[in-house]
Amino acid sequence: MDEWGPEKVVCVSDRRTGMRGVLVLDNTARGMGKGGTRMSPDLRVLEVARLARAMTWKWAAVDLFHGGAKAGILGDPNSPDKERILRAFARALSNEVPGEYVFGLDMGLNETDAAIFLDELGDRGAAVGLPRALGGLPYDELGVTGYGVAEATDAAAQSIGMTVAGARVALQGFGAVGLATARRLAELGAVVVAVSTARGAVLDPDGLNIPRLAELRAVHGDDCVLEYGGAVDTDTVLTADADILIPAAREDVIDKDRAGTTSVRLIVEGANLPTTPAARDVLHQRGIALVPDFIANAGGIVAAAHSMDARYSPFTVDPDDVFPMISTKMRANAATVLAESARHDVPAHYAAQLLAQERVREAMRLRGQYNPGR
């Protein structure tokens, strides 16, 4: 714990289903806790706490009034017992949801899972990211986060004198975020030369056929790279010959060694925490621009903010209201952070964090929570 939080860590379990999970409310000075809920077989409390802290900065960076939080379930998201586990998790957190936290979507969960949370607690306000048939805004189907990553990439490239049109892009991760990122970048004229999933990577210096990969993913999931043909080791995408690298999968995939050898000019963090602190210092020293995760992938929380506002409304959220706001905020924030990084000669993460911290600190001060003398 530090001056920012976490304010509350709730660990829960259920003997009948074997469910084990955690909720971390990091900092709610600017509003109630909001962040995604993930499910993975190797989940750790510290992992969820780090992600909750990232949400604190993410909400503040886009200047939307919610607080940082995250929840996670230890388990296989493909388990046949998944629904029972989700229901047990929701029941165990009924004291916190929806008063202090609202379930959202993250790795391992989808719109149907959000509907399970809603059904178990009998409250329309218990979850966002619901299927369209339940009045929700289907983030993954619309690709809101990936769209925002691509918009941030375009703005960042312009800031350092590049153009996305014709730029070679390597993309780690081809899930909901990676796919939507690739599609939008292709629309902007980028050449996606490398894509990876957990099952491998495919590379083509002349550009991959993104529509074909998308079709294969719809049928085969992560095996789409194998079906595409010519798959190599999944980490190859991180060393591919490219101008722009977008890690959109897991945490800590770019360490100081990879940062010291990469030949790209721009890295845009589509995933949460994909670079280590040491790597960020190396990248800054080498003059490689970096757009931090809580700036680049905040498109999803813009959509979540709209959904939070409409939880109890009989009217659905219009995507035409969401995408323009995502574009405006992602582009402006990416350009601002890179400019501040250059002006103060500090890593971009540090520049972005200073901006977010000042907003959170001011909210804490106004609430009487901030005491610089302690």
UniProtKB/TrEMBL annotation:
Domain (Glutamate/phenylalanine/leucine/valine/L-tryptophan dehydrogenase C-terminal) ranges: 136-368
Coiled-coil intervals: none
InterPro entries with a match to the protein in the record: Aminoacid_DH-like_N_sf, Glu/Leu/Phe/Val/Trp_DH, Glu/Leu/Phe/Val/Trp_DH_C, Glu/Leu/Phe/Val/Trp_DH_dimer, Glu/Leu/Phe/Val_DH_AS, Glu_DH, NAD(P)-bd_dom_sf
Tree of life domain: Bacteria
Keywords: Oxidoreductase
SUPFAM superfamilies (alphabetical): Aminoacid dehydrogenase-like, N-terminal domain, NAD(P)-binding Rossmann-fold domains
Annotated PANTHER family: GLUTAMATE DEHYDROGENASE (PTHR11606), GLUTAMATE DEHYDROGENASE 1, MITOCHONDRIAL (PTHR11606:SF13)
Annotated family: Belongs to the Glu/Leu/Phe/Val dehydrogenases family.
Protein name as annotated: Glutamate dehydrogenase
Lineage: Bacteria, Bacillati, Actinomycetota, Actinomycetes, Kitasatosporales
